[in-house]
Amino acid sequence: xxxxRTRPFLKWAGGxxxxxxxxxxxxxxxxxxxxxxxxxxxxxNQNFERYLLGDIxxxxxxxxxxxxxxxxxxxxxxxxxxxxxxxxxxxxIELRHEFNSGLKGRRRAAVFxxxxxHGFNGLCRYNxxxxxxxxxxxxKRPYFPEKEMLHFIQKTKNTTFVCGDFVSVMNRxxxxxxxxxxxxxxxxxxxxxxxxxxxxxxxxxxxxxxxYKAEQLAARGVKVIxxxxxxxxxxxxxxxxxxxxxxxxxxxxxxxENRGAAKELLAIYE
Length: 270
Known about the structure:
There is one protein chain. This protein has about 270 residues and is an alpha/beta fold. The chain folds into two domains: about 15-55 and about 155-270, Rossmann fold; about 65-145, Adenine-specific Methyltransferase, Domain 2 (Adenine-specific Methyltransferase, domain 2, Orthogonal Bundle). It is about 30% helix and about 15% strand. It has a seven-stranded mixed β-sheet with strand order 3-2-1-4-5-7-6. α8 links the parallel β4 and β5. The chain is globular. The protein starts with 19 loop residues before the first helix and ends with a strand.
């Protein structure tokens, strides 16, 4: 029987929608914890009783909290941002400047969705000063993801969203919980790194720290699954885990001709 999947309402580099068939068999339990929730592709397609979803990106968590609290009111508020007159470079740059000038609350959440859907390749990227710096995407008619947001709202009933680093989120796990980690991937080559999803980046030391934390939790009865590229670096980092390797199609690259197949893995600690 074919499983019906739900897509996230945000466009997202490295989203795990295409990996659900690989991931879902490992995600069984009462509570799912995601320290790198991203677009939410994983939790949206699971059936846990409770969810604890964290991310280091405050704009992402602000958006999710607004949508959970305001529900359809937020969708109605967002609609005017998706009109033909708003789909131009000048308006995009104007809103991006407003966003980077300290915008708060509900409007910041709405502009974040606008920038995500109208920006180049759906990237979420910040400079070292914390400014959102993705250029205008030049799409003919950006999609307004109302249906996807309505499904997201339904899934948030037993969901807690927190903004914090992966250690603080993982520390909230208890025996029997399942933790899925989707950190920024190690680079495939010295020039291929994509670390600007959050202004802080994500270092090699943090990759190692994540694996160490996974080992600690597994010893306490918490199952941890980590996804990453499959290469020499990750094989060394995850040497104490059970490894499941596979090939996936890359969907976001600055070089369109290099959106080819790449080897990825799941490191499973239990």
